[in-house]
Amino acid sequence: MASFLRLLASERLKLSKSYIWLLVPLSPLLSLAIGLLVSLDTMDTTWKYGNYAILVTAMASFHAMLFLPVLTGIFSAFVCRYEHGGGGWKMLLSLPVSRTALFFAKFTVVASLLAVTQLLFLAAVFVAAAYQGIDGTIPWRLLLTGIGGGFLACLPLAALQMLVSVGWSSFAAPLAINVALTVPNMLIINSKTFGPLYPWAQPMLAMLWYGEEDFGSLALPMENIVITILGSFAVFLAAGLLYFNRKEQA
Amino acid sequence: MNNWVIETKGLSKLYRGRYAVSNLNLKIKKGDIYGFLGPNGAGKTTTIRMLLGLIKPSKGSVHIFGQPLEKERLSILRKVGSLVEYPSYYGHLSAIDNLEAIRRIIDAPSAKIDEVLNIVGLSKDARRPVKGFSLGMKQRLGIASALLGNPELLILDEPTNGLDPSGIQEIRELIKQMPKQHGITVLLSSHLLSEIELTAGTVGIIRHGELVFQDTIERLHRQAHEQGTLSLVVSEPEQAVAVLQEQGLGVSLMNNVILLKHIPDAAIAQAVKRLVERNHAVYRIEEKRQSLEQLFLQIVGEGGRP
What are the sequence ranges of the domains in chain B? Predict the structure, then answer.
């Protein structure tokens, strides 16, 4: 555990002087713009959670469907990029560190960047809500399950992207794979059969609520999402760790 | 427990059906500077990667500090500093931050950073981003990183690559001091004999993945000496050749110069005496020593595979 924390401190230093932080507020800012521009009056306000649900659904549509999964890939590729670039892997792995701890340290960095992104999104929701003049109690439970669920739903993707990014010294290739797997979201989300099973669609399923509306897989209960998230997380993480531990460090 | 710092037994690495390293039995003793020599592609870096646990041997075993590497990798690596092939660095960080990134992992004292920067002579460039460094400076930074953890064993793969002659000289002096001042054992690889010759106590020569020589540098010198030739210039060389052949010496004649394989002093004295007895005038006896470089080239060149 101590060695994991030391690795984490080292990763933090490497990241602190990089440009990756500029990417973190990008999607929340875009969502904020949507939140400010969306007109709540034209929407059907009979939804169970009222205006908040409409606002969040509008704001999260691009964020959860596209940006969050794509950012997951970018973050993962980024924490591996500076190792591939300067021969960092062989130096790191010649130090007294376990490969598993190193993998988790990098994974933790990716997860932290995602968590910050989600927190900024939450802040964007509040700003937009204030601007739109939505009053009434804040549906904390709903907001936190949605935003937290979106975060958790990205972890399996992060695990898979770590596997791909560790294996591939190219920065673009893992991203291309990630985008190629994210784009079908737009179709898959409408499918009751595949939607609940497709890992890349989970952030969206977690973050968008249409209440009792029957709209493809979006009407599914949270339990379904959790099972898919946990299942894919276990598989991708195990594959990543196995691969990284056995990798020949050439 | 024996006193070998590094000992490999039958160490082999198979790459796509071909042995990059084959049946290597390295023995490196404590406090020594071991020069690991071989042409490019002979298997030096592959061997070093196996010693550091970066890749797994196909066959054979590695013991470092008397402990099996496979089981005790972390506790062994805690006492090893290394620089593998080209230097590793994070271009967007300064030299100090590069070292700090490592220091945080190995938990070395902060003061050590200044100390190692000073040792490799990078103190005044320490705050610049490393991406602007020359290869030689990156190489020094790599050596600084290797020294950061106060290692007992230093594994340096071609550490003087990319350095200018004065830099090479500096690094050579630095490496020489390691065993004396800090009791550090050094494994130093190179494809240039000249670099090893002046620093190493023991030399291992690898060719096509096989260890073809492993002994002290003195032994290598002696071998070079023994493979030297004598040249004799005499009056009537043809007859003189016949006289020498009578004594059972292997001789050849080239441009009226008699060439003799290296023979003991007594045999030379005897041969000269015979020639004089037969009224040959001996004008000149010269010993042509084989340089270490020639011997090295001969060792790595002979029996070459396609």
Answer: 4-215, 229-288
B105 touches chain A (CB under 8 A): yes
Q: Residue A21 falls within a domain, yes or no?
A: no
What gap in Å lies between CA A157 and CA A125, rounded to an integer?
A: 24
- A205 vs A183: CA distance, rounded Å: 15
Q: Can you give the residue range of the structural domain that contains A187?
A: 26-246
CATH topology of domain B4-215: Rossmann fold (3.40.50)
Question: Any CB–CB contact under 8 A between A190 and chain B?
Answer: no
Q: Which pLDDT value is given to residue A216?
A: 46
Name the residue with tokens 């001042």. Answer: B181
> Within a 10 A sphere around the Cβ of B265, how many other Cβ atoms?
7
At the top level of CATH, the class of B229-288 is alpha beta
Total domain count, chain A: 1
Whether A96 sits inside 8 A of B87 (CB atoms) is: no
Whether B65 and B153 have beta carbons less than 8 Å apart is answered as yes
- Contact yes or no for B55 and A248 at CB 8 A: yes
Q: What is the ipTM of this complex?
A: 0.84
Of A6, A91, A94, which has the smallest distance from its Cβ to B107's Cβ?
A: A6
How far CA A125 is from CA of A55, A56, A117, in Å, comes to: 8, 7, 12
Is residue A189 included in any domain, yes or no? yes
Each residue of B162-203: pLDDT tens digit? Answer: 788 888 888 888 898 888 888 899 999 998 888 888 888 999
In a domain, A20, yes or no: no
Q: How far off is chain B from A245, nearest CA to CA, in Å?
A: 10
Inform me whether the pLDDT recorded for B304 exceeds 50: no
> One digit per residue, pLDDT tens: chain A, 250 residues?
778 999 999 999 998 888 888 899 999 999 999 888 877 765 555 555 677 778 888 888 889 888 999 999 999 999 998 899 888 899 999 999 999 999 999 999 999 999 999 999 999 998 998 888 787 777 887 788 888 888 998 999 999 999 999 998 888 888 899 899 888 888 887 777 777 788 888 888 888 765 444 444 455 566 777 788 899 999 999 999 999 999 887 6
Residues in chain B within 8 Å Cβ distance of A94: 52-54, 77, 80, 82, 84
CA–CA distance from A246 to each of A71, A98, A146 (Å)? 27, 12, 37
Q: B90 — contact with chain A (CB < 8 Å)?
A: yes
Bridge partners for B207 per DSSP: B210
Cβ distance of A91 and B102 shorter than 8 Å: yes
Output the average pLDDT for chain B.
87
